[in-house]
Amino acid sequence: MVEPFIPKPGTAYLFPNPKKVEDWQADFKGTIITPEDLQPNTNYWFYVTNKVNAQGKNYVKVAFGNQFVPRDQESAKGADVVVEDDSVPF
């Protein structure tokens, strides 16, 4: 017997909704397994890729990326780091 496909945590596979009749209904359907280290109320990057399976059917792969950190917070993190290198002669 074939085991059901289980995606990796943080990854979703979305397939066209075969039951779509009305405009307001979802274009794609699928499930996602959230990563264990997912923090609630936190922004994350998402990576979305259009793919074609072995049967030639289109689907969409969605993956969680790293936690989103705004640029102003990134620069603030690096601002307090002072690197002194005595090996430079000038």
Topology readout:
Elements: E1 11-16, E2 28-32, E3 44-52, E4 58-67, H1 71-79
Antiparallel strand pairs: 1-2, 1-4, 3-4
Overview of this protein structure:
This protein is mainly beta and 90 residues long. The chain has one domain. The protein is 10% helix and 33% strand. The chain is built from one helix and four strands. Strands 2-1-4-3 form a four-stranded antiparallel sheet, with no helix packed on it. A hairpin with a 5-residue loop joins strand 3 and strand 4. The mean pLDDT is 80.
Order of helices and strands: EEEEH
What count of helical segments does DSSP give? 1
In angstroms, what separates the terminal alpha carbons?
Answer: 71 Å
Tell me the number of strands: 4
Based on Cα principal axes, name the global outline: extended
- Percent strand: 25-35%
If strands are numbered along the chain, what order do they take across the biggest sheet?
A: 2-1-4-3
Low-confidence stretches: none
Structural class, from secondary structure content?
Answer: mainly beta
Largest β-sheet summary: 4 strands, antiparallel
Average pLDDT, to the nearest integer?
80
Count of separate structural domains:
1
Fraction in helix:
10-25%
The radius of gyration over CA amounts to 21 Å
In short:
The protein is mainly beta. 10% of the residues lie in helices and 33% in strands.
Features:
90 residues, mainly beta, four-stranded antiparallel β-sheet, 4 strands, 33% strand
